[in-house]
Amino acid sequence: MQKIRRGDEVVVIAGRDKGKRGVVLNRVGPNHLLVEGVNVVKKHQRPNPLKGEPGGVVDKTMPIDQSNVMLYNPATGKGDRVGFRFLQDGTKVRYFKSNGEQVKA
What are phi and psi of 68, to 5 degrees? Predict the structure, then answer.
């Protein structure tokens, strides 16, 4: 079970986009994430008439390392560390280390 999953809201803690918040769109490999609105670069794209893609300069979201983001805790309004615990019925859930609340997923 990953500490950060698709659909989680995260805050960037290091790098060019430090302080930005976004939603995880996808996991790319074991250690990288695509986060909406974070690490956006300009890419010069050649037109592809077979796919109907126009050429020019397009914005593209690039992967960011998961060590540079923290899960956003709405109760505190900041990034927070995440841990795992087992409930009484045996299910494994994520929780915020600062206040012990369960992560809403």
Answer: -95, 5
Q: What structural domains and CATH numbers belong to the chain? A: 9-96 (2.30.30.30)
pLDDT tens across 43-85, in order?
999 999 999 989 999 999 999 999 999 999 999 999 999 999 9
Q: What is the DSSP string of the chain?
A: --SS-TT-EEEE-SSTTTT-EEEEEEEETTTEEEETTSSEEEEEE--BTTTTB--EEEEEE--EEGGGEEEEETTTTEEE-EEEEE-TTS-EEEEETTT-PBPP-
Assigned token pair, 93: 């859930």
